[in-house]
Write a structure and sequence with these properties.
heterodimer, A: 160 residues, alpha+beta, Immunoglobulin-like, 4-stranded antiparallel β-sheet, 8 strands, B: 201 residues, mainly alpha, Arp2/3 complex 21 kDa subunit ARPC3, two-stranded antiparallel ribbon, 9 helices, 2 strands, 71% helix, 4% strand
């Protein structure tokens, strides 16, 4: 019984500091969507990391973006042009509290190409600039077939 | 000039479809048996014209040629433009099937008006023929861009600035289209006058 009490006290002593430590743990999570990078930051699972600095660096350590989180701990920014490496987002939430999230270049390229409006417009423009000759000829042939059909029907009506 | 799918509201699309159907019916009724081949030639020219891009500075524009189609065909321009737009939508994803009616109204109504406004000027003198062709081309694009702006404005009145921007963006196309139509009409009058209804009389 005595041993059990000692174990229980030890467990409490271990868990209480651990819980406090978790309360101060800073978390940042980021993702790519519609040509933007979105991030959410918090202390643990409940407290939002408000007005905390966020810096974004490329692989060489150059800072490509800086900003502050809003009242909900969110921060977003447009993906700068000519990104050619992974990006690391660092959340600085006061002395000693820092968290990082890495976004791979593959994710940036893949998501941007699906949703980014300039990319879509560029694709559309290329599509329009290089129409298939076969399709053009088919279209013209169809117009003349329709015209011949119209002529046939008109002729029928005229004969009646 | 082609309005894509998902931009316009249901009532605007429905109104466009009704007007396009009515216009096509009148156009088919009015097509002269002997001029069906001309309708096919001009529909083919309209079908291909949108695929030819011209670079003006950083922008890329394409010809529309609804002015010359309307000038030479009158009401028959409506089924011609409908056919060409339908094929463009199917083959090249220009515009769309739900917006076909609105696109037909946007491009064919100014074309028919150009026929009644400028056809009487053709053949009187070479200068007047070129001027009539130029004005037909310019007027068709101007009026088409206004109709396009109105379609957007009726969908959402916040599109007013977009509508103005569209009309402004088409100013170079109006001038190019005017020059192309002017030269085409003057050339056709010399080498193939049968295609111009005024000459037939």
């Amino acid at each position: 019984m005595k041993i059990e009490k000692i174990l229980f006290v030890c467990l409490v002593l271990v868990l209480v500091p651990l819980n406090i430590a978790f309360a101060h743990k800073v978390i940042i999570f980021a993702w790519v969507e519609d040509g933007m990078i979105y991030s959410q930051s918090s202390f643990g699972s409940k407290r939002k990391a408000k007005n905390c600095a966020i810096k974004v660096e490329n692989e060489k350590g150059f800072i490509i973006h800086k900003g502050l989180t809003d009242q909900e701990g969110n921060h977003s920014f447009k993906i700068p042009k000519n990104i050619d490496s992974d990006l690391v987002l660092t959340l600085v939430a006061g002395t000693g509290h820092q968290a990082q999230w890495k976004i791979s270049i593959d994710e940036i390229v893949a998501k941007s190409s699906d949703k980014d409006i300039p990319t879509i417009m560029g694709k559309k423009e290329n599509l329009e600039k290089s129409p298939s000759i076969l399709k053009i000829l088919t279209g013209i042939a169809m117009i003349f077939i329709l015209a011949m059909a119209a002529k046939f029907f008109k002729k029928g009506k005229t004969l009646k | 000039m082609h309005i894509s799918e998902g931009v316009l509201s249901g009532p605007v699309l429905a109104t466009g479809a009704v007007f396009a159907l009515a216009g096509t019916y009148i156009g088919l009724k009015k097509i002269d048996y002997d001029r069906i081949v001309h309708v096919a030639i001009l529909a083919s020219a309209f079908f291909v014209a949108s695929l030819i891009h011209v670079n003006i500075g950083p922008a890329s524009v394409h010809l529309i040629l609804n002015g010359i189609v309307g000038l030479l065909l009158g009401f028959a321009a409506i089924p011609a433009i409908l056919t060409a737009l339908l094929l463009q939508a199917v083959f090249f994803q220009y515009g769309g099937l739900t917006t076909l009616g609105v696109n037909v109204v946007v491009m064919a109504v100014p074309a028919v008006l150009a026929h009644y406004l400028f056809l009487p000027l053709l053949g009187k003198s070479s200068t007047l023929t070129f001027t009539a062709g130029f004005l037909a081309g310019l007027f068709s694009i101007l009026f088409s861009s206004i109709l396009l702006g109105l379609a957007l404005w009726f969908t959402n009145q916040n599109f007013f600035e977009t509508s103005l921007a569209i009309i402004t963006a088409y100013i170079p196309v109006m001038i190019i289209e005017g020059i192309v139509t002017g030269f085409c009409v003057a050339f056709l009058l010399k080498v193939y006058p049968e295609i111009i209804p005024v000459k037939k009389k």
